[in-house]
Each structure stands twice: as C-alpha cells, then as structure tokens.
Amino acid sequence: MDLKLNPLHSPQMGGHQATGQAKELTDAQEARQAAILKAAQDFEASYLGITFSSMLADAMPDPEGGHGEEMFRGALANALAKEVAESGGVGIARSIAAQLEVYSK
Q: What pTM does this model have?
C-alpha cells in the first residue's frame, strides 16, 4: 500500500479542495503519512536486524576474521536490514503503516 497515493479527505471539504486551509491540511496529512511510513520502516529494519544477526551467527559460527569480524557482525546485520527495509522490505513496513494509518484516524 502506497500511503502517498491514498491521501485522507476531510469530510468538511465536501470532496473538493479550497486554497489555504485545505493546502495546510494536505501538507499536514503528507507529513503524518511520511512519519508513519518512516516509523514502519524503522520497525521493519529493527526486526530484520535481529533476524539477520541470528542468520549470520548460524551461517558462520566461527568467523575466519577472528574477534574483529565477530564484533562487527551486528553492524553488518543492521546495515543489511536497513538497506532491505528502505528498498521495499519484505512487507512488514507496509502492513504496519496501513494499520497505523487506520488507528490514527
């Protein structure tokens, strides 16, 4: 679900937009939708970071890079998770954003 394609419509506006106040509402709605999407992507990245960290630990229990590689494995998992979440993710962020949008009405 692309939140930017589904702006909220104010019942007071009667389905058409006036200038001034309507523009401010639209800007506020867009800012709220952007904040919701950011929070959902951050949550997805956090979840994926934990998942990737566990996967990396299982895939390479004894890293060849020694203690240094082991220390930075968490940072690698978090960086991978952030990139996956920002590039569309696995669907968690979209689901959470849709629910947050419903609950915030």
A: 0.66
